[in-house]
Predict the structure.
Amino acid sequence: MYINAFTQHFPVNLTETLLIMGTKDMQEIRLCAGRNAAVIKSGRLMDTGVYISKEALDKIIASMCRGSMYAMQTSLVQGFLTLSGGHRVGVCGRCVTENGRVTHLTDISSICIRVAKEVKGAANEVMEYLECNGRLYNTLIISPPGCGKTTLLRDIARRIGENHKVCIADERSEIAACKKGIPSYDVGKYTCVMDCVPKAEGILMMLRTMAPEVIITDETGSRSEGDAIRSLVNCGAKIITTAHGYSDGGSEKYADKDIFERIIILSGRNGPGTVEKIITDGRVIRRA
């Protein structure tokens, strides 16, 4: 059961409460020292009634770090941990800086667990727009946080990985959730995964060595990632990636139209993964 990936770190009373509340539509679990634990279910923020002391939170973090916060600092200073199964744990605490850069994170006071789920069929609604006569389109998926970008991306990988040479640059181990090199999720028969690699480096490494037809990665946006994507496309391979944005905010205006042939806008209006519109050449070709 996927919730064991995080409940194994929790006190018994919190685990029991979550099971009573039901985990089917659970999207986030939020723990703040000195306050009650909260969850987001079906888009609603709910109080669990379970008080989380600083001592309890410290034990949870120590367990998630397998007893060594020092060993996990590389991830912590970026503001997150990734649990088995691809569940991302955002962290807040006291930052130690040197020359303007965060070098350590201590005194963790809050965590936010984003619940990852494999939803086979999540991509059914969009697949006809991503491929034509065996040709894949460069695609950007835009949505607010928690609206199903990664879940959709994972299922796209599964579908096209049955017939194409797919590579995934999985910086946070969330798309494939590899464990000792083996994906925890079904990401396609012919899909190769570069795990825990910075996206820009991963794109260029796989372009040089794996002869991909398409590279899939999540939450791109930096200059170096943009440069890597342009290099990929200039070499004739395709990119499918995601970015944060909002369905009513004109986010598609900021997408590089020289690269992206399809732009998919998601929202949580009817639950995570609601496809609001699909755009090509500035034209809406499908609307909810």
User: Anything to note?
Assistant: The mean pLDDT is 90.
